[in-house]
Each structure stands twice: as C-alpha cells, then as structure tokens.
TrEMBL record:
Keyword check for Phosphoprotein: no
Protein name: Lead, cadmium, zinc and mercury transporting ATPase Copper-translocating P-type ATPase
Transmembrane segments: 91-112, 124-142, 154-179, 319-341, 353-375, 650-671, 677-699
Coiled-coil residue spans: none
Organism, scientific name: Methanomethylophilus alvi (strain Mx1201)
Family matches, as Pfam families: E1-E2_ATPase, HMA, Hydrolase
Taxonomic classification: Archaea, Methanobacteriati, Thermoplasmatota, Thermoplasmata, Methanomassiliicoccales
Length: 717
C-alpha cells in the first residue's frame, strides 16, 4: 500500500537526506521524495498496512530530526501551505538590502579608502550579512545541535564566518548574498516548471450539476452515479466521462490533449472529464464513476510520475553522498595540515579550505538534474503526452525501434461495413445473425456490425456466447450455432470458405451450423497523421514495425503505404509479445511498443517503453503503458522521443558543466594561488544558476516540433 504526501522543504540536498532517513524507518518498504514538485511517496508491505498511521508518525518524527523545518501532509486531507510564498516575499527585499550594504561597504573600502579594520566598515558588512543570511545561520545552528555538519546551511555559515575571522569581510557577505540569489533563481525555475504541469493537475471539476427528480443539485463529482445526467453550462468543466444527450456546441480539450482547436460535440458524442464547455449547455449521461474517469486517471498518472526516478537522478544522489564529505575532509586537511607545518601562512591555507567548503555544495547537480526531467515531463504534458516518470524520459531518448499495433493506433479504429456478401441467404439475414453473435463484444469491428444493423438486438435470442481472442465469436442465435470470425477461426472450426479472396480489406466470415454463410467486408482508414508519424521517426533514425491480428493482405497494404521497415499479420496477442521480443533482441538500442487495446497490454508491459493511446485506449493498456498519448495521435510518438532526447541532452550538459567547473576550481585551489573566493562563489552559485536556467530550456518546444506546428498553422490558414 502506498500513500502520497505533500511536503514543505526548501533544500534539495536536505530532501535527499530526509529521504534516506525515512527509508530506514521500520515497516517502510520504499520511500521516494521529489524536491521539485514537493511530493513524497511512502509504501509499506501488505503485512504493515494496519500500522500505516504509526509508521507515518515515525517517518515524520525521523524527518524532523534530520530537517527541523520539514512538513508533510496527506494530499487527500490537507491543502498545500503558503509558506513558500511567504518565504519569497521576504527573500527579495533581503537580497536587495544585502546588495545595498555590500555596495555601500565597497564604496567605503575602495572609493573613500576607509581602513578595512574600521568599526563603521565592519558594522556595514556585518549588518548586510545578518540581513541577507540570518535564516541560514539559524538553520546551521539547529543542524549543529542535531549533529548534522554537511548540509548547505552549515557549509555556507562556516565559510562565511571563517572569512570574517581571517579578515575577508567583503567575501563573507558575498558568499551569503550570492548563495541566497542562487536559492531565489532555483525557486523561480522550479515554480515555472510546475506551471506547465499545473493545468493538468487542475483537471478535476470543482462540482457537478446533477439532475435528480427533475431538479438540479450541485454535488461533488465523486457522488455522481453511473447513468445519471449532469448539466454542463458554458465555461464549466465536464465533471465525469459521458455521452451528450442534449445540446451541441464546442468543447475546449486543450488541458486534456494539448490540442488548441475546440472540438464540436452533439447528441451521441462522448465527452471526457476535463473538457471545458465553451458554448451552450450540454446534458451529459455519465458512463463511469469519477474514479474511473479520464481526468482521474490522468491525475493518478501525474502523481505516480514523480515516484519513478531515472538512473541519472539515482547516480547524482549516490554521488552527492560521497562528494560533499570528501570535499569537506579535503578542506579540513588543506586548512590544518599546512598551517601546522608552516604557522606563518595559516591564513592563506584557511582561506583555501574555505574555498573548498563553498565549492563542496552539490546543489547544482542535486537541483538541476531532477529539475531538467521535471521540465521535460512538463513540456510533454503540455502537448498531451503523459510520461510516467523520469526513468521513461531516459529510456525514450535511447529508442531506435518503434513497433505499432494497427487498429486504433495507425488506423482510426472507426470500422464500417462496406459490403455484405451472403451465401444462401439474404443480406439482411446474414447481417442480423452476425450482429446477434457479436452483441456482447466490445471490439470495434463488432460495434461496426451492430451499428450497421440499425436497431436494438433482443438478448433473449442469444445464448452460449463466447469470444476467442484474436479469432472471433461463437453464439447460439435462434437455436442455430453462428460462428463469426477471421480465416483462422473458420479453418479451426473446419468450415470451408467458398469465396475466400486476398483483399486489402478486412473480411469477417460468418458460418451457420457449421456451413459457410457469407462474409462482411469491413474497412478502416489510416489516421490523418500516420504517414507523418512514421516519416518523422525515420528522420530520427528510428526503425518502424507493425504487428497486427488482421489478415496478411490488409497488413501488407498498410505497411507498404506507410513504408514501414517490417510487419507481421494474423497475430494473436501472445504472438505479438514473442515477435516484439525478437525485434528487441535484434539490436542494442531500446524498443517502444505503441498500442491502444486490451490485447496490447502484454506487449506494452514487455517493451522497453510502452506507449498507449489514452483516450480510446482500454484501462489495462493505459495501466500497462509507460507513456500515454491523450489524443491518440501517432505523430506524438516522435514528439515524445524528441522531447526526451532534448531533456537527456540537457541533463548531460548540466552534469558535465557542474563537475568540470567544480573539479577545476578544486584542483586550481589545491595546487595554485589563482583562485579566490569570488571564483569559488561562481563555482557554487554561478554554476547552479547556469544549470537551473539550462534545465528550464526543456520547457521549450524542440525545433522539430516547432516546424511541425508552424506547418500545421499554415495549412489551417
């Protein structure tokens, strides 16, 4: 069992330590703390579910021992606090005041030529230091009381006070001031990245207007039952998935799918929770409970995304545990050992040690890496692509093979009966028998046959109905055995197909009492962007394949039109998985599988990255997938890979930048006299700001997507 908590913590390195401490609490199976989106996930084993409240209390007490200002609350019981806003309100004027005092001190020291030992000059620098950094000093003292020596507050305080002690007043104020400036930039970048996910996080309608006993009632969406009618007025959000029973107009689907163009809906059309009605009132008959609605599933996916960390994030966590203590020990060694050997130069060696302390803070890495992934996930979510965690952003960046299902993925999944070709009976009778046999199936082909019939089916006519996955259905209709399915099913039943032909259309064969009775010819067109999707993937060096349960002629026709690198037809669900494994083993790169139906779930789970078409996809497909495309556009497979590659590049840039600069400064400090405290400040705060600003680049539209969007806009004009 797992619970999700909101958290209040303002230090990435502290968050890492809190996570490590809580993970040691007895009864906790796993804990994941996301500093960027301020959430924590605690999971306990089945045997400890009854103790969850006790474990939760122990986890909070443990967190307080590590970080006294830490707060946690269940996301389903307490709303998020405003402490962060209050902090920002006070931090800006404090930074401005610190800048003013530092500038005034420099004016006194270098322009007016006041003595550095003068009381006034020291007072100016000391006041500036206290104004800008009193909270850092207070937190450092708290940490000292709890025997915590390696967090950034303690390191900055020691570096600042050490600089004061050896007479470097200007540098002492600068260390604290620029540290706070770095914190400010960090917070702003994190807040900006959260804004891109905020629209999806607000998909839940605040209320539902339900019609009961002829009267309207305003209730919570969770209390609306399946089959009830809700009224959605202009500007209101659809609270629960359902079918429009009255009214027509346009709905804004941007928050759900990323598509800017409103969609027209009328009687009989399906609308999803999260759509916003932009015209007249719509009456909607609910088809699901709120917990099963599209927006509820999306909110669950967003919540889960922070709990899955990439290998890069895990590496940085392990690295920070070793790096900071190692650098601090080096700082002590540099400050103490040479000073003992040569007491006359102790100030210079202490100064070098303080430089090591400033550079030892791992914030540039601990903040920028998870922030980069978070921004990448936010960029994808804005385009209607939900990625279930940074580990899948990392995996997507290495995709070199994309395997597609056909029906509902590359094709529209909107089947229609083009022709009816009976043998020994009328077209009407053949269609009626086939529709009755398919009456209890949810397959798109079944729905197309039932829809062609044009009237309701009397269930009393049907008995002993059974479905054979990947083949068809069989049922007793009016006392006769009716078999409806593909060539494979007919052959297994020993039924001769008198007029079997190879066609690039889907043939549904019908047999009555073991004798061939005719066929229905079904067609399904390609999605509008299917060709662009395959072309974009090929441009990126990704090989494309298709696995379908349809006939060989149909599969071949689609593969040739899309110019796929390979395909397999007439496949059962288990065949898809084994063929996928063969494709995956053909090279060292990663493979994604793109599908939408319940039959695709095993393949979605088996692939390196499973990508589900979310809106029309089955619940099991969305659950099994790692990425969900909300508007079912196959072209967004390429977009998701492009976003992930860009994000992974930014992560690598930040890691290389931070490590290269820090190690260079540490080496120069240890072996030369070329480094002063200002360079150390750049090595800490400067690199942090650069890395954070670079991470925010992941929110921008990748170049390829920008070109595609401009092209679409020109076509629309």
């Amino acid at each position: 069992m797992r619970r999700t908590y909101g958290i209040d913590i303002d230090c990435a390195n502290c968050a890492r330590k809190v996570e490590e401490a809580i993970s040691e609490v007895d009864g906790i199976e796993s804990v994941t703390l996301s500093f960027v989106d301020k959430r924590m996930f605690i999971e306990v084993s089945d045997g400890n579910v009854d103790r969850f409240d006790e474990i939760e209390k122990a986890a909070e007490e443990t967190a307080h021992r590590v970080e006294s200002d830490f707060r946690m609350w269940r996301t389903d019981t307490v709303s998020e606090c405003d402490d962060e806003k209050e902090k920002d309100t006070y931090l800006i004027p404090r930074i401005c005041t610190g800048v003013a005092f530092l500038a005034f001190g420099l004016l006194l020291e270098y322009v007016l030529d006041w003595n550095i030992d003068g009381t006034v000059l020291r007072a100016v620098f000391l006041i500036g230091l206290l104004v800008v950094g009193y909270d850092v000093v207070v937190n450092a003292i708290r940490n000292l009381v709890h025997a915590r020596f390696l967090d950034e507050n303690f390191l900055m305080t020691v570096a600042t006070l050490g600089a004061l002690a050896i007479g470097y007043w200007t540098e002492s104020v600068a260390v604290m001031l620029f540290y706070q400036i770095g914190e400010f930039f960090q917070d702003r970048a994190v807040d900006r990245s959260r804004e891109h996910v905020k629209a999806l996080a607000e998909l839940k309608a605040p209320y539902a207007t339900v019609i009961r006993n002829g009267k309207t009632q305003t209730v919570q969406p969770e209390s609306v039952e399946v089959g009830e009618t809700v009224a959605v007025g202009p500007g209101e959000m659809v609270p629960i998935d359902g079918i429009v029973t009255a009214g027509e107009g346009f709905v804004d689907t941007k928050a759900m799918t990323g598509e800017p163009v409103p969609r027209h809906v009328g009687v009989g059309d399906k609308v999803l929770a999260g759509y916003i009605n932009t015209s007249e009132t719509l009456m909607v008959r609910t088809e699901t409970a709120y917990r099963d609605s599209a927006s509820a599933k999306i909110l669950a996916l967003i919540e889960d995304s922070a709990s899955r960390k990439s290998r890069s994030e895990k590496f940085i966590t392990r690295f920070a545990k070793v790096y900071t203590p190692a650098v601090v020990l080096c700082a002590l060694a540099i400050a103490v050992i040479p000073s003992v050997a040569d007491p006359s130069g102790w100030k210079d060696w202490v100064y070098k040690g303080l430089i090591f302390l400033v550079v030892s803070c791992p914030c540039a890495l601990v903040v920028s890496v998870p922030l980069s992934y978070y921004c990448g996930i936010g960029r994808a979510s804005k385009d209607g692509i939900l990625v279930k965690g940074s580990t899948f952003i990392e995996a997507l960046s290495g995709i070199d093979k994309a395997v597609f299902d056909k029906t509902g993925t590359l094709t529209k999944g909107e089947f229609s009966v083009n022709r009816i070709e009976p043998e020994g009976m009328s077209e009407t009778e053949l269609l009626d028998l086939a529709a009755c046999a398919e009456a209890f199936s949810d397959h798109p082909i079944s729905k197309s046959i039932i829809g062609r019939l044009g009237h309701d089916i009397d269930p009393s006519r049907i008995s002993d109905s059974s479905a054979i996955p990947g083949k068809g259905v069989e049922a007793m209709v009016d006392g006769r055995v009716v078999t409806v399915g593909n060539v494979r099913m007919m052959k297994e039943c020993g039924i001769d197909l008198e007029s079997e032909e190879d066609r690039s259309e889907t043939n549904v064969y019908v047999a009555v009492d073991g004798k061939y009775a005719g066929r229905l010819v079904i067609s399904d067109g390609l999605k509008d962007d299917a060709e662009d999707a395959v072309s974009s993937l090929k441009d990126m060096g990704v090989r494309t394949y298709m696995l379908t349960g349809d006939t060989e002629p149909v599969g071949k026709a689609v593969a040739e039109r899309l110019r796929l690198d390979g395909y397999k037809a007439e496949m059962l669900p288990r065949d898809k998985t084994s063929e996928l494994e063969r494709i995956m083993s053909s090279s060292e790169g990663k493979t994604c599988f793109v599908g939408d139906g319940i039959n695709d779930s095993p393949a979605l789970a088996r692939a390196d990255v499973g990508i589900a078409m979310g809106c029309i996809g089955s619940d099991s497909a969305v659950e099994a997938a790692d990425v969900v495309i909300l508007d079912d556009s196959p072209s967004k497979v390429a977009s998701s890979i492009r976003i992930s590659k860009r994000t992974q590049t930014i992560v690598a840039e930040n890691i290389v930048l931070a490590l290269a600069v820090k190690f260079a400064i540490l080496a120069l400090t240890a072996f030369t006299d070329a480094v002063d405290m200002w360079i150390a400040i750049f090595g800490d705060v400067g690199v942090l700001v650069i890395a954070v600003l670079n991470a925010v680049r992941a929110l921008r539209i990748p170049r390829g997507d920008a070109r595609n969007r401009m092209s679409e806009e020109r076509c629309g004009d």
